[in-house]
């Protein structure tokens, strides 16, 4: 069974609290999401594999450790875009893929409209990013698409999760670990997380 990792670092929690406030500007929301994504990336990459190599310092040869695996960030559009730059600031060599999914307002199930991945996703570590894990439909659908391309090492990173979304991802992809900064109460009748922070994509891009 996948593990649920609750990221309770004080800076993450503080910035998330600011993001929940409906009165902050689109600019401030965007900045905070980028900052929180960078902090969360530090936590989610804690157990990445390393390999030993050698470098020549100004004094002598040193045995050092470097990342052993390719890293790709897979953003679920639209809101996942807001997390990419923050993560790239920490992992600048990561490749970036995009999966476009929107939630059908009647069935609440994901509908795919865009799909562009780095080459050889089967050979590296993938972090799927989406600020809100609500029904879990988009996340589960994106993970399934990656598996069909041969991906094996997949992690899901979300800012806020609902119990329903966690349960769905665990049911459909029991080997995928989930990292989140908060597990909120529930979903409402429209599939939004309560109390949540509203529609992350709308708040990120200033749309309605």
TrEMBL record:
Domain Phosphoribosyltransferase, first and last residues per copy: 7-207
SUPFAM superfamilies in UniProt: PRTase-like
Entry's Gene Ontology BP terms: UMP salvage; uracil salvage
Reactions performed catalytically: UMP + diphosphate = 5-phospho-alpha-D-ribose 1-diphosphate + uracil
Cofactor entry: Mg(2+)
Source taxon at top rank: Bacteria
Cofactor note: Binds 1 Mg(2+) ion per subunit. The magnesium is bound as Mg-PRPP.
Binding site for 5-phospho-alpha-D-ribose 1-diphosphate: 78, 103, 130-138, 199
Recorded metabolic or biological pathway in which this protein acts: Pyrimidine metabolism; UMP biosynthesis via salvage pathway; UMP from uracil: step 1/1
Signal peptide coordinates: none
InterPro entries cross-referenced by the UniProt entry: PRTase-like, PRTase_dom, Upp_B, UPRT, UPRTase/APRTase
EC numbers: 2.4.2.9
Main enzyme class: transferase
PANTHER family listed in its UniProt record: ADENINE PHOSPHORIBOSYLTRANSFERASE (PTHR32315), URACIL PHOSPHORIBOSYLTRANSFERASE, CHLOROPLASTIC (PTHR32315:SF4)
Known function: Catalyzes the conversion of uracil and 5-phospho-alpha-D-ribose 1-diphosphate (PRPP) to UMP and diphosphate.
Protein name: Uracil phosphoribosyltransferase
Species of the source: Calderihabitans maritimus
